[in-house]
Design brief:
single chain, Immunoglobulin-like, 4-stranded antiparallel sheet, 1 helix
Length: 536
């Protein structure tokens, strides 16, 4: 078979893209960070962006266990990792007390204006816990550690709820002050049921105000996992309440199902921890556990719950009084609304509008962006191998993108997890550390594709095309053209402009198999291409 020079050049360029794609097999984006701290459990729980544009990642690890984690697997400490904006590791520190049965775990981190941060979690170490006579460990107290920009400890303080189970899951700075809110479960009575503790502290950990909320529906059992600072300087926290048994008819099984369920819980306080209102939410048959909430710029809140039956992520848009405006499910397969692609642990506001979700599904870690009504704009999965990846938390970045942290079990396959982080820009693409250019030379082309990977259709945006009559070409991994999409400009779009752009859409035909494809466009002066992944 004979090829002309232009066709041969095109096939060689496609082959080079394929080779690069295979070299990057097992990854989606280049801005990734993973870390094994020493062979044991490494559990990344929270991430925040620091004053210099880098990131703090906090969690728990038994990498520093006395005698090694194999012989002292219950000896955990706080860990704190500092990354720069490009994901390069700057330093790693650990905090707590080493010793058999000393369990110190960080669940939250908040960057501070001095380029340091404050960590919150729990401790079982005698250095901070007043263990009752006759016991050795197994008593939890809240533990806070504040550090400077080098990770050196400024102060450490514990808080005791007078019984066995006290933890802090979330901590955030109150804008316009040097104070912080933190929240977590607390037990203040011997029945073992947890209440919810919300506290405001100053910059050195002194208590300004606090409140304990008790669930009166079932012996005071409640739990709390996350919160958000509200525009009025108060806070709103979410969790679960009212755990009970229930029976109901489940159509797919044509039977009566009985299991324990709980309601999603929201508590709103003012700036001094006075409770303004408390509400619960449920669908009547699922075990709801709310794990995240964000204050929306236009007023009100968006909260997520994990429905354990079925395992879907339920989103509720609330007004400022906690009344439901609308609900929706996210992370579902668009082709089959009974199947899920991901469960999401965290929702945050996306700069410029919409929301970012971080979670896991199908063994992959996921970042998803939606519009203001939770309609998916794009999703990015991260798969590092044959085991599980998951994201537990995320933070918005100054460029409008998102950075998420969690765990991977694939990098060092074993029974233990390792630390994982990934950053994307606002299009769900790789972050290179180069600001987006508002204008480009006419001969330069930039291609953006979202969602990517996709399962029904992909939106393709071309910037700087600079010529009428061009077409977007789609090739399969063998270099065979499978689609040619004409690009038509309207008179108002001025295709000769340096900021000209167009948007088109590719929907694979019914017989197209899942796999890797390549978008390519040639304006006669330069050629651009982008890899896309079709998940059918």
């Amino acid at each position: 078979m004979q090829y002309d020079a232009k066709d041969l050049k095109m096939r060689l360029s496609i082959l080079m893209i394929i080779v690069v794609g295979f070299l990057a097999a097992g990854t989606v984006l280049g801005w990734q960070y993973y870390k094994n701290l020493g062979g044991g459990l490494d559990d990344a729980r929270d991430i925040d962006i620091c004053a210099d544009g880098g990131f703090f990642i906090a969690g728990r690890s038994n990498a520093w266990a006395l005698g090694g984690f194999e012989d002292n697997w219950y000896d955990h400490e706080f860990f704190l990792i500092k990354l720069d904006s490009l994901g390069n590791e700057e330093w790693i520190r650990h905090y707590g007390e080493l010793g058999e049965g000393f369990y110190d775990a960080a669940w939250g981190v908040c960057a501070t204006p001095d380029s340091g941060c404050i960590l919150c979690g729990k401790t079982q170490s005698p250095k901070w816990v007043d263990v009752p006579f006759g016991y050795t460990t197994w008593y939890d107290d809240v533990l806070l550690v504040r550090v400077d920009k080098f990770g050196d400890t400024l102060w450490t303080k514990s808080y005791d709820g007078d019984d066995r189970f006290d933890r802090a899951w979330w901590i955030k700075n109150i804008p316009g002050s040097n104070d912080f809110f933190f929240t977590g479960p607390i037990t203040v009575n011997p029945d073992g049921f947890a209440d919810i503790w919300i506290m405001r502290i100053d910059s050195v950990g002194n208590t300004i105000a606090d409140v304990v909320w008790t669930d009166s529906t079932r012996d005071g059992h409640a739990d709390v996992r996350w919160g958000a600072i509200t525009p009025d300087g108060g806070c709103i926290v979410v969790g679960s309440s009212d755990l009970r048994d229930t029976s109901y008819y489940y159509a797919p099984y044509d039977s009566i199902v009985t299991h324990r369920i709980s309601r999603a819980l929201v508590i709103k306080t003012d700036s001094l921890c006075n409770i303004l209102w408390t509400k619960t939410y449920d669908t009547g048959c699922s075990d709801h556990y709310s794990r995240s909430i964000t204050a929306c710029p236009g007023g009100g809140y968006l909260m997520t719950t994990y429905n354990k039956w079925p395992a879907w992520t339920w989103c509720l848009r609330l007004d400022e009084d906690g009344d439901t405006l609308w609900t929706d499910y996210v992370g579902l397969d668009p082709a089959d609304s009974t199947s899920r692609l991901a469960n999401f642990s965290m929702v945050i506001n996306a700069p410029g509008g919409g929301f970012y979700f971080a979670g896991s599904g199908q063994g992959w870690a996921w970042i998803t962006k939606t519009d203001d009504y939770c309609n998916e704009l794009w999703s990015v999965p991260l798969d590092l191998g044959g085991y599980t990846e998951l994201f537990l938390n995320c933070v918005a970045t100054p460029d409008g993108g998102c950075c998420a942290c969690g765990q991977t079990y694939s990098v060092y396959p074993s029974a233990y997890s390792d630390i994982l982080a990934m950053r994307v820009n606002r299009w769900g693409e790789d972050y290179y550390g180069v600001p987006e250019v508002a204008s480009a030379r006419p001969e330069e082309i930039e291609i953006r594709a979202y969602p990517n990977p996709f399962n029904s259709a992909v939106n393709i945006r071309v910037l700087g095309l600079g010529a009428r009559g061009s077409a977007v070409e789609v090739f399969d991994i063998n270099g065979r053209m499978v689609e040619e999409i004409p690009v038509n400009w309207s008179d108002s779009e001025k295709p000769s402009s340096t900021t000209a752009s167009c948007v088109c859409r590719w929907s694979p035909s019914e017989g197209t198999h899942s796999g890797t494809f390549f978008i390519r466009i040639d304006n006669g002066k330069s050629v651009a291409s982008r890899k896309i992944v079709y998940l059918r």
